[in-house]
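Worked Example 4.2. Consider the chain below.
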Amino acid sequence: MGDYVVVLEAPIIVRDVEASDDAINVAVSKVAKALNKEKLDFVRVEIGYSQCPVCGAHFESAFVIGNVGLVGMYLTIKVYNAQTIEHAERIAKAVVGKALKKVPLKIYEIRELSEEEEGNGVELRE
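Applying the procedure from the previous section yields the following structure tokens:
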């Protein structure tokens, strides 16, 4: 059994926003509200970053067109006692997906949990 940190990537669509900062604020609020409703306050929410294909600079993944915004977010969760990396991935997607229905979740990063990172997370009990 292993302990893992799983980072999921999620696209969040928000409506009636004027600028990317507004889109980010609304998206963070929307995701935090959905996670708190399911008592998943241990999931860390961060804004995603994209890389410019021309200059290589990084910028926040928030785009607004016609008052509709698309915000890329990273959701980090710790999974304890998973049998394999794939098992940890399925657990993370199931737990976060319970709160964010209809939001496609993709694995951005998955790694073994180091001793310094231990804390709140999801534990599989047999």
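The mean pLDDT is 90. The chain is about 25% helix and 40% strand. Compare this with Example 4.1 before moving on.
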